[in-house]
Amino acid sequence: MKPVNSLKRSLACVLLLSTIQFTSAQQKTVTNDERMAWWKDAKFGMFIHWGVYSVPAGRYQGKEVPGIGEWIMNRAKIPTASYQAYAKEFNPVKYNAEAWVKIAKDAGMKYIIITSKHHDGFAMFDTKASNWNIVKATPYGKDVLKPLVAAAHKAGLKIGFYYSQAQDWNNPGGAAAGGHWDKAQDGSMDDYIDKVALPQVKEILSNYGDIDVLWWDTPNDMTPERAAKFDAVVKKYPKLITNNRLGGGYKGDTETPEQFVPATGFPGRNWETCMTMNDT
């Protein structure tokens, strides 16, 4: 029998070796072809925009607001307090994630992307970084991403999250196309990134099992230094596919033409068209 101290040292060495081997396996380099293989085969996916903007449904103060519904806060210059009141009416009690996934699969779709947070800053998941989320701000009080991810995995579909990393019209400091219109929006963008956006990206990539796509959008005021912080998080997930909208010079894996199909594509680049099936 080995002395106790010798045994402890041996055990420590084994555990250390196991840790090194595990870390090495996790950080194994994945080639671009390997990462994109399923995506190139998939061809067809469902892109879901869903959030508090479903409550006003394109109308504010009795008038229809031109443009797509998820931009209503910006287009109508709705004050943050007025917009946040909509959350009290957001109660999707008939939400059935498995039914949504079945619709996608029956249509021949191979993957789903859903808005985890759009430009209004409202998180559709249980986040610790901001109280402006579906769990704390609505009567529904539940995370809607978790059941969708579970249903997608069960059905064999890939799953991804859209995340608005720069624009955020409710969390102070977030960017806004055309500039802020409410003093409650003012603040440090760097503080917003460090205290809200980065923590939330870490949450959506680590709290739901395997996530296949992270879909950035509108890099307003996104400098190379700010974008690098997000890229550092993404690099921890070598199989993750990202698009070209992070900003700061980061190209990601895919080009994202919207509402049109480019006749000649993008030579040397993977691309997907986002084609809305209705006006909003």
> What structural class do helix, strand and pairing data support?
alpha/beta
- General form: globular
Termini Cα gap: 73 Å
- Number of DSSP E strands: 9
Give helix and strand order, one letter per element, not per position.
HHEEEHHHEHHEHEHEEE
Total domain count: 2
Largest sheet: 5 strands, parallel
Task: Give the fraction of residues assigned to helices.
Answer: 25-40%
Strand order of the largest sheet: 1-4-5-6-7
Low-confidence stretches: 6-26
- Give the CATH topology of the largest domain: TIM Barrel
CATH class of the largest domain: Alpha Beta
Describe this structure in words.
Helix content is 35%, strand content 11%. It is α/β, with parallel strands linked by helices. It has two domains: 1-30; 31-271, Alpha-Beta Barrel (TIM Barrel), CATH 3.20.20. The protein has a five-stranded parallel β-sheet with strand order 1-4-5-6-7, with helices on both faces. A two-stranded antiparallel ribbon has the order 2-3. It has a two-stranded parallel ribbon with strand order 8-9. Helix 9 links the parallel strand 6 (213-216) and strand 7. Helix 5 (97-106) packs across helix 7 and helix 8 runs parallel beside helix 9 (224-234).
